[in-house]
Amino acid sequence: MLRNIDLNKKFTLVLTIVFMIGVLLSGLALSAILNRNAENEVTTQAEMLMQTMIAVRSYTDKQVNPLLAARLDTDPQFIPQTVPGYSAREVFENLRTSNKYTSLFYKEATLNPTNLRDKADTFETKLIESLRKNKSLNELRGYRQIGNENLYYIAKPLIISEASCLVCHSTPEAAPKSLLATYGSKNGFGWKLNEIVGAQVMSVPASHIQQAAQRSFLIVMAVVLTAFAIAILITNILLKKAVVYPIKRIVKVANEVSTGNMEAEFEHSSNDEIGMLAIAFNRMKISLSMAMDMLQRRN
């Protein structure tokens, strides 16, 4: 099939194939890079929020809890603001009222929590068990499915690093009366110092990562396609001027010579292969002319 296609169309076909292969490979590489960059961006945001929650926990434990600790045995109901995890969760829920953070989720998933809203589900339990088995892990990252939503998560171990936490979580007998009155004596006990009892889990819908990557992909690919198209167009024009048109001129002159017009000249304005071809044709024309003169003299 290619034998019946002129040189100009062959050049265009080759350039188009090169263009398609280049765009395909660029698209695959770009997609992977943008997905990774979008994931890193979300991870950085989640890390910052996670550190904020850790700071809230520390503030509650060191400054709020000492001010209210004495009331835990006298008040009829437990004061949850003395619990670092409660403060962190409430602060984050207030943060989620902003449209910028409404799609983020934070939970201090615990194997044996006092407040059952912090009870780890099956997936979170596996995360906690992994962190407990390998204490060198500072965090876990990945994706999980909840209903129809695909979530990207970061999980950090929740370690009992302060002895003050054991006041409410060692045994029911040692716990404040208000805590027992509010939550009962079945949950949230038996914790030990330096034990991993849960995980701080920050989650964000994966669609946000994908949408951010897709937006960047479309913009960059539009630029790449435009750049490739312009490059192909310029290359095609240059090839026509430097190769196709000179060859067509040589073909035209060769046809004239073949019909007996020995005055036709093969022009050669360059010293490249096309110019050398024109010189060779001129020599051939001269040789042909000399041969014809010799035949005429013999006759």
From TrEMBL:
Q: Please state where this protein is localized.
A: Cell membrane
Per UniProt, the keywords (alphabetical) are: ATP-binding, Cell membrane, Kinase, Membrane, Nucleotide-binding, Phosphoprotein, Transferase, Transmembrane, Transmembrane helix, Two-component regulatory system
Top enzyme category: transferase
| Xref: Pfam families | HAMP, Tll0287-like
Q: Which domain of life is it from?
A: Bacteria
| Spans through the membrane | 12-34, 217-239
Supply the EC number(s).
2.7.13.3
Q: Which reaction does it catalyse?
A: ATP + protein L-histidine = ADP + protein N-phospho-L-histidine
Q: Where is it predominantly found? A: membrane
Give membrane topology per the record.
Answer: Multi-pass membrane protein
Domain HAMP residue range list: 241-293
Q: What is this protein called?
A: histidine kinase
Q: Which organism is it from?
A: Floridaenema aerugineum BLCC-F46
Q: What is the lineage of its organism?
A: Bacteria, Bacillati, Cyanobacteriota, Cyanophyceae, Oscillatoriophycideae
